[in-house]
Amino acid sequence: RGEARQRLGIRPEESVLLAVGRMSQEKAHIDLIHAFHQIAGKGRAARLILVGDGPERSALEQAAGVGVVFTGQVRDTTLYYAAADVMVLPSLTEGSPNVLLEAMAVDVPVVATEAGGIPEIVRHRESALLTPPKSPARLAEAVEEVLSNQDLRSSLTTRARAIIAERHSPEARARVLVDLYRSLNTQ
């Protein structure tokens, strides 16, 4: 973590918000930028790192301001997850987002919207904090709560890691497939 933050030029006192994904309207990065402005406006030393690219990037860059970093498309996101204090998924719609599973697997607490399949993967206040879509103020409050509460961060990441092991590990996925094939054989 320390090495990743040093490589990225992040000061020890800075909180790092991370979003990984395609920069398109339905991903609602603009809501995250507005939430970040609220958090930084309250005096928190913070940085928002947006990993990815897409059709909304230039509009997002215009709205970004100080403290927002655009990495562009990145092949290996390991360094960014290692440096992050919280991964934020502000989407308006989602299926089963890999970035959510990635953050959970590497012990980065998650703040996400209640969009699409997200609530099927995580539960509010158990394995992530969930907010309504299109609500930068609620997103900012949830991020601030995660950043300010070590016990909450620890409980969220512990439960998230357990969910990955129970439902999303290669072994768990193999068990589901074997059970499916067995059920088809008995019909």
Secondary-structure topology with pairs:
Blueprint: H1 2-7, E1 15-20, H2 29-41, E2 46-51, H3 57-64, E3 68-72, H4 78-83, E4 86-89, H5 98-105, E5 110-113, H6 118-121, E6 129-131, H7 136-148, H8 150-168, H9 170-185
Parallel strand pairs: 1-2, 1-4, 2-3, 4-5, 5-6
Characterise this structure.
Helices cover 50% and strands 15% of the residues. It is built from nine helices and six strands; from the N terminus they run αβαβαβαβαβαβααα. It has a six-stranded parallel beta sheet with strand order 3-2-1-4-5-6, with helices on both faces.
Summarize the structure.
The protein is of the alpha/beta class.
Binned, the helix content reads 40-55%
Query: In what range is the share of β-strand residues?
Result: 5-15%
**Shape field:** globular
The total of helices stands at: 9
| Sheet having the most strands | 6 strands, parallel
Count of beta strands: 6
The computed structural class is: alpha/beta
Q: What descriptors fit this protein?
A:
50% helix, 9 helices, alpha/beta, six-stranded parallel sheet, 187 residues
